[in-house]
Task: inverse folding
């Protein structure tokens, strides 16, 4: 839980007439408005899966944080459950940013975005279209879904596409979604079927959680069309890429480097880890320190 130097409040906002649940972190007794970091998780993730730890560090450094769950996930409303729609998630981000700008303790001109994995791609996409964003952190970001497909392997991709088609057909017939696991062992019918995926989720998910290990399979048909890299040349604000150099399958490091090279005001930090190595342990300490220093330098929370 947050320390005595900060407050965390349950808040909510509306995204397309659906309630989104969020935590609002704010420093105590600042006496002035402060920057705000808007945050949400990656593929199927929810607030309590380590993003609260990042939020506390940023808040300790004098910044407010709005950490939210997407519609259909976690503490937010939305039916059917576990529906991962990239378009809807981007809508939720826009609603969250608009809501953050109305918070009484927040300076609306100093809004930063933090995203990781799939949401790392989201924050790049959003900043490319919102010149008022003050800073962006993209951690192990999804940068190019199309070029990310080959590392997944033909057999695995074929199974995912067939599951996605079946789910879409069920939807057209008015039936319930066909779900696949979000994370599973290699060879399983899971969106993230790697040795490290499920052990990571098991390690970071607290006993009391809203996370469910499944997603509607139709996301398999949309993932390859999601290419945040195509718009990064339009990002005006400072952008920090935190890249796991050993990430070769879920968000390949080479694609993140390619995106960073196209981003006008990019900064790059690299770490010796795979896709999940920056969320806890010594590398998390190093990454969150780098991120906090980046935010303080560009947002000036003491002002």
Result:
């Amino acid at each position: 839980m947050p320390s005595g130097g900060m407050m965390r409040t349950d808040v909510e906002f509306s995204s397309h007439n659906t309630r989104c649940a969020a935590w609002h972190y704010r420093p105590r007794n600042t006496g002035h408005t402060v920057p705000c970091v808007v945050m949400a998780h990656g593929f199927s993730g929810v607030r309590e899966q380590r993003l609260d730890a990042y939020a506390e560090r940023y808040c300790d450094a004098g910044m407010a944080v709005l950490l939210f769950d997407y519609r259909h996930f976690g503490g937010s409303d939305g039916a059917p459950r576990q529906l991962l729609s990239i378009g809807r998630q981007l809508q939720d981000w826009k609603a969250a940013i608009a809501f953050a700008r109305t918070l009484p303790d927040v300076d609306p001109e100093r809004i930063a975005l933090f995203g990781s994995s799939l949401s790392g791609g989201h924050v790049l996409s959003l900043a490319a279209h919102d010149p008022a964003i003050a800073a962006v952190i993209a951690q192990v970001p999804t940068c190019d879904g199309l070029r990310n497909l080959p590392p997944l392997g033909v057999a695995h991709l074929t199974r995912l596409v067939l599951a996605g088609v079946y789910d879409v057909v069920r939807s057209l017939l008015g039936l319930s979604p066909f779900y696949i696991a979000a994370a599973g062992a290699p060879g399983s019918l899971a969106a993230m079927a790697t040795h490290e995926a499920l052990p990571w989720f098991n390690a970071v998910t607290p006993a009391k959680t809203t996370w469910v290990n499944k997603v509607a399979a139709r996301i398999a048909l949309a993932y390859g069309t999601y290419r945040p890299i195509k718009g990064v040349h339009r990002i005006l604000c400072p952008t920090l890429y935190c890249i796991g150099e050993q990430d070769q399958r879920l968000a390949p490091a080479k694609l993140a480097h390619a995106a960073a090279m196209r981003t006008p005001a990019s900064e790059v930090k690299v770490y010796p880890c795979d896709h999940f190595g920056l969320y806890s342990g010594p590398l998390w300490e190093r990454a969150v320190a780098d991120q906090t220093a980046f935010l303080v330098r560009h947002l000036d929370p003491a002002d």
In short: The chain has a mean pLDDT of 96.
